[in-house]
Amino acid sequence: MVMQWIKKTGMFLVLAFASFAVNAEYAWNFPKPVTPMALDTLHVHNKFMLITMILFVVVLAIMIYSIVNHRKSRNYQAATFTGPRTRPQVLWTLVPFAILLYIDFILMGIPAYHSVVMMEDTKNNADMVIKVNGSQWRWSYEYMDGDAQGIKFVSNLTTPQEQITNEAEKGEHYLLEVDNPLVLPVDKKVRILLTASDVIHNWWVPAFGASRDAIPGFLRETWVKVEEEGTYRGQCKELCGKGHGYMPVVVKAVPQEEFDVWVADQKQQMAANTAGADKEWTKDELMALGKDVYTKNCAVCHQVSGAGLPPAFPALTGSKLVAEPNLDSDGKLLKDSHLDRVLNGKGVMPAWKATLSDSDIAAVVTYERNALGNAVGDVLQPAQVKALR
Amino acid sequence: MSYTTTAHHDAHEDHPSGIMRWLTTTNHKDIGTMYLIFALIMFMVGGSMIMLVRAELFQPGMQLVQPEFFNQLIGVHALIMIFMALMPAATGFANWMLPLQIGAPDMALPRLNNWGFWLLPPAAILLTLPYILALFGIGDGAIATGWTFYAPLSVQGGIGVDFAIFAVHLLGISSVMGSINVIVTIFNMRAPGMTLMKMPMFAWGWLITAFLLIATIPVLAGAVTMLLTDRHFGTHFFDAAGGGDPIMFQHLFWFFGHPEVYILLLPVWGFMPQILQTFARKPMYGYKVQVYSLWAIGALSVVVWAHHFFTVGMPVPALLYFMYSTMAISIPLAVLFYCWIATIWRGSMSFETPMLFAVGWIILFGIGGLTGLVLADVAADAQYHHTYFVVAHFHYTLFAGGIMGIMAGVYYWLPKMTGHMYNEKLGKLHFWLTAISFNLTFIPQFFLGLAGMPRRIPDYALQFSEFNMISSIAAFVLGAAQLLFVYNIISCARGGKKATDQVWEGAQGLEWTLPSPPPYHSFTEQPVVK
């Protein structure tokens, strides 16, 4: 009775699944491809899936025929053969393996060869080069050549903590949204150089079909040529610690003209930042900017409250290191001071020198010394940071 | 083959009783029983961990655990299931059945055998102790790098990594000792007349497993030792800043890791044809070619390791080599599938629980194999790699191909081991619940992977919600169904219908010539195989 019920329910579920699969198109497969590589991957994938499904169905049909007919309850008398006996039987036995060899190395092997060559062709006819750096747990981007050369920024997750802890309703792009997306022009072949500053990460956008590890101390490369405008989302794909699920990749593909405008805009902002480093900032200005920088970059480990997550991530609140002075009387950086840690890092703590501007560093150090339960009282000016570079 | 046997039923059975019997035993059946019980316990422990993971993944957002703890659960789940459930279960069968099948009085090296087992409980304690230490504020929990220990994440990790390294050392020593024992037993203790090519297939499967273990476990031990010195003694094997290379760790790890897959599966490929021929009442098809295929797979398995990390970036010739050599494995594997199906073809089949598991195993393991063939393609792998597609794939090979295979073996030999028949109705219910809920757990994960959900993330974007929910519910059913398995085993050990010597109508081989359960010392006079 129970067995019958289970068998029936099982059949129903299998059928229900099968009918789903016919109706929807892309939710059951790769996302819509927007690069030549992703399109090629989709074709290869579909073809291989079809081949393996045919193999599976044929073999399953043979097994089901046997299970239904060759059973003792039907009084089927067992045969006694243990292998092919005559020459035609031997030849007939070899047919499936000939077919399999053909599938493996011709039907699947040849398209697979072309895909590999295409995937690894990163250098030829590249229109621009960008560098992607993975660190725990954010991506940073730098444009290496052309008009955009020198533009660099950090890309942080913007999903509020309340959404993650279920205290607020989740937004449409929950966990797949960032403050500064990577902006790329459409129809341009972009060579992407990857590296990492702490552990191995993997930069992946499913719609691009490109996925490559970012390895600390080594350069790896891949390429994309986005053929459709739009915003594309992906995530880090290599386990990189507790924030692994919280380092999305967001890429905005825009027409060349729009990209040029964006580049000009970024350049202007960079100039303003450099100018900002030279002026005298008030403490309130520094604290306001510092809070912003802290929330985006530091709070993942040291927590919004500054309590940290000891022992891996020490507390900043009441920290001895934070209370010590940063500079000696000549304005030189003291070794193992608070500012030294922020600029140069140590162990798990990343070096922020390369990713944050002078104003950002001055602001966040000032903020950490005068908020989060600390009251050291001093103010660090961007000009002082600039002088240390 | 035909046998003449003289099994004495009145064998002397003086041995210590109580706990000392189990601590000091050198009897292959006692040790086999301990291996199997240990495997069952750890299977439930590792399973409970993944139930918690599936509960957390039931819906988006963080509900039950913190991301750090989530990472610890997934890695320890894998280590337990591989090293402490599947491997000991296979070793348990080897201990119990190899001497019976080849007509030997015991394993060749009984004290080594005892030591091999008693290294396992300390290893299990080492691996899980950091969870308990963390409750007392010591360290930050168990290993959180996944079971693969990838540097530099594992260099950065807490004390859990050190505990896991030593646990792996103990497990490795235990496996190597078990392997030496298997090889020595098979080469020296076969009954007169049993030439290598007359050996039961299970002995062949285990012989090749043993060689693979001896070839690859030392590499793993070396790799984790290098990791240990990187962590504590200032070496830079895996640190680029000191002239090392993080990717070298992956090469060393998977040089062990890929053969490991076959280490888990070869024993199953050994006894599965025996189960099929028993319930098809028809001799095994293609014995010789199966043996050659097992050797071919064993040999190929040590030269394809880099397909586990195509996305780290490799030269094109290396990519092509690892792609085509991986595809080549499909040929001997297809030979095995062909032989298994040809064994049941035109047989006179009946479907007791072991046969249900065996037939279900061919089908589900087939899905694992076919998706593996697709994963070999480098370009498509860039998309599948480290997504739920891979998670689904290797659960089809290791849960369906490994654990469901072991379950077939348990139901097949349980009457022989205990002397009682298990509850057939409950066994069948266990099979159907397991097979259906297993598919409902992992089919959605194929689609999750294709849609772009990475593995090892504690929380996910909203588009993945529905499939995760289906997968979690099915996983809970799958977990609960295993309680039936445990119950059935316990009640069978305690009593039930007496099993005959042959147990199954179509059973062939020396182990079925002995009484059920077999006497404490199996063959007091050597059987002769003609």
UniProtKB/TrEMBL annotation, chain B:
It catalyses: 4 Fe(II)-[cytochrome c] + O2 + 8 H(+)(in) = 4 Fe(III)-[cytochrome c] + 2 H2O + 4 H(+)(out). It is found in: Cell membrane; Membrane. It is an enzyme of class 7 (translocase). Its EC number is 7.1.1.9. It holds the Pfam family COX1. Keywords: Cell membrane, Copper, Electron transport, Heme, Iron, Membrane, Metal-binding, Oxidoreductase, Respiratory chain, Translocase, Transmembrane, Transmembrane helix, Transport. Gene3D superfamilies: Cytochrome c oxidase-like, subunit I domain. One of its GO terms (molecular function) is oxidoreductase activity. PROSITE patterns: COX1, COX1_CUB. The keyword Acetylation does not apply. Pathway: Energy metabolism; oxidative phosphorylation. GO terms for cellular component: plasma membrane; respiratory chain complex IV. Residues 22-530 form the Cytochrome oxidase subunit I profile domain. One of its GO terms (biological process) is oxidative phosphorylation. The chain crosses the membrane at residues 31-53, 73-96, 117-143, 163-189, 201-228, 248-271, 292-310, 322-343, 355-376, 396-414, 426-447, 467-490. Its main location: membrane. NCBIfam families: CtaD_CoxA (TIGR02891). Cytochrome c oxidase is the component of the respiratory chain that catalyzes the reduction of oxygen to water. Subunits 1-3 form the functional core of the enzyme complex. CO I is the catalytic subunit of the enzyme. Electrons originating in cytochrome c are transferred via the copper A center of subunit 2 and heme A of subunit 1 to the bimetallic center formed by heme A3 and copper B. This is Cytochrome c oxidase subunit 1. It comes from Pseudomethylobacillus aquaticus.
